Each structure stands twice: as structure tokens, then as C-alpha cells.
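Provenance

Sequences were taken from public entries as deposited. Structures were produced by running a predictor on each sequence independently, with no templates supplied. The record for DUF938 domain-containing protein from Thalassotalea psychrophila is shown for reference.
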Amino acid sequence: MPLINVENTLNYSPSCERNKDVIFEQLLPFLSSVRSVLEIGSYSGQHALHICPLVPNLTWQPSDQLDLLASLNKNIQLHNINNLKAALKLDVAIEDDWPLHTFDLIFSANTLHIMSWQHVVALFNNLPKCLNENSYLCIYGPFKYDGQYTSASNENFQQWLLDRDPVSGIRDFESINRLAESIDLKLIKDINMPANNQLLIWKKNNVC
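Predicted structure for DUF938 domain-containing protein:
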């Protein structure tokens, strides 16, 4: 398998590097059956740089906000991977930023707790623009269940987030799932991941 050296990656994320293999392992059954992926909040692009050479049948579209776009695209250009496209500017709250075509799978890692709640709602309100009748939505990160943290470290992380930005924070799974259900997505997997994270996978629900 081809290996990507991320030593010179701009905005390098140690946590992404630690978790990329286990995320890929869980996503692989879905990635193997799809042809197009939109990643929301790609940041350094490490997930895409890791996955694309291993699953050459899919086309990966990274995206992020304007202030991160130049560094993200430098990382992409450095490795010149055929099925990894140049990153798009995407602010989830701006309707005109969203791509005009649909994707088989939409992936986002460690983004919902960084956004404001208003941006989380805007993300789900705009997602239907990019969902086809069989799309998957895969979101990785920490969540609360029934208002409870899954670990003491996540509770400490919540305080760090709030000190950094009062509108951020670990989201309640139930609230996120309600937003997903409101756009006809059905939860099919809730996977416990390392470091007290979850991988949530929804599928477009076409059952009347």
C-alpha cells in the first residue's frame, strides 16, 4: 500500500494521525461501495491523504473555511493524489458555498464541537443539497448521551472548549440525531472509537 509522509503537512494534527487508521477501518465497508465523498472541515487534509491512495475507486472532495483553504490546498498539491480534488471553500452557514451536485458519502471529523450550535443547525439544513437517494453521512467526534459525558476527560475537554469559545461544545447525540432525522437520515451505526469518540453513520431513508 502507498504511504503518505505527512511530516511537512501544514496544520498537522497529532490526534488525526493517531486515529486515522481506526477511522479508515470503520469507514472502509462504506467507502468500498461508493464513488464520491465530500469531507466537511478537512483542516490539514490528513484523512483524505491517508484514505485516497488506499481506495482509488472513489473521488474525494475536501473543503474548509476560507482561512484554512490555502494551507489545505498546499498539502493536497504536495502529494498529487489522482483521486483527491482541490479543496473547496465551504462555510456551512452560507448556502451559496455548498456544492451544486450530490455525493455518495459525506464525512466530517471533529467539527461539530468546534462550531456554534447555529452552525450545526445550518449544516444539517444545507446537507440535503448534497445528498442523493442513497447517501451516507459519517460524523466522528465526542458526544454526550442523555446529557452525560462518556468520560471524565470529555467533561474536561468541554470546559477547555468553552474557555476557548463559549459558543462551542460537545453536542448531545439526541439533538444531533433529531437534526439528521429531520432531513430523512436514519442512524445505522453508532461506533465506540478510541479516545472517547464516536463514529455516527446515517443513511438516507427512502422508506415512506
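Residues 117 and 167 are 7 Å apart (CA to CA).
The chain has a mean pLDDT of 94.
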